[in-house]
Amino acid sequence: MATTRRDFIQLSVLAGAAGVALTPRPAVAGAEVGRASRPLTILVLGGTGLIGPPLVSYAVARGHQLTLFNRGKTNTDLFPELERIIGDRNDNLSALAAEVAKGRRWDVVIDNTASIPRWVEESAGLLKGSASLYLYTSSMSAYADTSTPGADETAPLGQISAEEIAKVTTNRDITDTNFGPLKALCERAAQAAFPGRSIVVRPGLIVGPGDYSDRFTYWPVRIHRGGEVLAPGNPTDPVQFIDCRDLGEWYVRLVEANAVGVYNGVGPASPMSVAEMLHGIRATTGGEVSFTWVDAGFLKQHEVAEWAELTVWVPPAGEYAGFATASIARAKAAGLTFRPLAATAVDTLAYWSSLPEERRAQPRAGGPAHPGGAAVHLAVVRRTIADERGVGPREPPAGAGDFRRRHLHVFEVDGQRLVDWRRLGGGRAERPGSGRGMGPVELRPAPPRHGNVQPRAAVRSEPALADPGRAAGRAVRRMDDERHRPERLGDAVHGARHRERERRGARDERNAQGGWEISRCRRQCRRGFGRRHLAQLHLS
Q1: Three-state secondary-structure class, residue 81
Q2: With contact defined as beta carbons under 8 Å apart, do 288 and 361 qualify?
Q3: DSSP strand pairing (267-273 vs 410-413)
Q4: Phi, psi at 515, each rounded to 5°
Q5: In what order do the strands lie in the sheet with 410-413?
Q6: 204 by DSSP, 3-state: which?
Q7: Measured between alpha carbons, how far is 89 from 96 in angstroms, rounded to an integer?
């Protein structure tokens, strides 16, 4: 059965408090962690889910003294050397209350697990006289509106009625509709109990080793498997996420600095497109991988769900126009740092590979929940194009070559022949911006001419021909020309851009310096085309 959006929200909520067996991980791989200037006593509400293990490991390495409060049911083998108070935030705070009654104090409370306002009201209310600082983990979903790109922490928060709040008693009552407003109320409860002494962090998608919901995991696993990978939307669509280790370690630095305030806790450090993410993951594998980009409207029409089936990505339009472009300037100023995407991808894949086979056979997100995964959707994409566009794909005539039979699809639409140009990449993964294999699935006429040069491997629209192999052959030859002889196009663009300048140089035979400049310009044009592989010509 496919994962519904409601199921996905519940998995996201539970990911912080539940998970499969983990082993303690070093806070910073291959690096020594310096000791804090002043050791703190820290009470962690949770500590064994997704953010908890790297947070606790890093805090211990920094020399802090930690106490964990949780139910004692998740990853019980973690941190046996630490003090643990057993209880349940839903209905049993008695053990924690007993410690407070004894006069127990902590410098900091870190709350990673609450999504119900009552939980924060009770825990923060109980601890407000026994701790100096309270850090609450909220969510980017707390914002009322994500339609504004680049919004910062001052954006309005979601609202929810008292009647709706009363209906939420456990995490199972949380839905995609009430999750964000409930988080906003939790923030207010923490700030009310600790006025001027609270830190609120609003993470986005939290990924990395230990992710119980498989939210990001789908992409490293799928790309590592190789072959043709369905890639969602436009290659330039933005994405945001944060490694759980970057987030947990930053929490420790925030409380060490007593950096009260509200922060968007998401990454990466600079804007990233979905194409950059996929090709960055691709760079960590050694197999043959190609990406087939499918338009967001087409995916929606055929009920392929963003975020749940094609994870990390949400089309940046309408109410989600700013979903993956939140400002993190304040967080970076407060010391948030990011490990490379490659490290996250490799470690996530290693974590996934360590899970039992029966667990890996039942991924909780990413791709349709049936054999074949996204490959089934690729088949649907091609079949639907054939159904909706008319005649459907035609194979080149026998003898046209194995490459053309596998990688060149020609369609007839309204009396015109169109090459399905995303197939001209030769089945090979290209870097972002290269132009090959980067186009949407839709068939369309050629992009506008650049100067006097016609893009060689773009879609060609020409009158229907009696011999369907002729247009196919020409398209393949054009592609081969582009791949192996970029200097020819460099010369052509040099002529288009600088023809008049060259005429002047030819007329003025005495200006030897001018002739040298022309030759240098021609060489630069060639090198530029060799480096970029005609990216500007291909992407329309």
Answers
A1: coil
A2: no
A3: unpaired
A4: -65, -40
A5: 410-413, 416-419, 461-463
A6: coil
A7: 10
Residue 11, pLDDT score: 43
Going from the C-alpha of 62 to that of each of 40, 324, 509, the distances in angstroms are 9, 32, 73
How far apart CA 92 and CA 272 sit, in angstroms, is 43
pLDDT band of residue 305 (cuts 50, 70, 90) is confident
Q: Which helix (H) or strand (E) holds 336?
A: none
Determine what percent of the chain falls in helix, strand and coil, rounding each to the nearest 5: 40, 15, 45
User: Tokens in use for 280?
Assistant: 């960055």
Which domains are delineated in the chain?
Answer: 5-211+238-270+319-360 (3.40.50.720), 390-540 (no CATH)
Token couple for 3: 């994962």
Q: Which residues contact 239 (CB under 8 A, 6 or more apart)?
A: 272, 273, 274, 277, 312, 313, 324
- 239-243, 291-295, 448-452: least confidently modelled range: 448-452
pLDDT (average), residues 372-376: 44
Reported confidence tier of residue 524, pLDDT bands at 50, 70, 90 = low
**Please, which residues bridge with residue 420 across strands?**
none
**441-444: which pairs have CB atoms within 8 A and are 24 or more residues apart?**
441/292, 441/293, 441/294, 441/295, 441/298, 441/381, 441/385, 442/295, 442/298, 443/385, 443/389, 443/411, 443/413, 443/418, 444/418
At 29, is the pLDDT very low, low, confident or very high (cuts 50, 70, 90)?
very low
Run of H or E including 171? none
pLDDT confidence band for 25 (50 / 70 / 90) = very low
Q: Are strands 261-265 and 227-232 parallel, antiparallel or unpaired?
A: unpaired
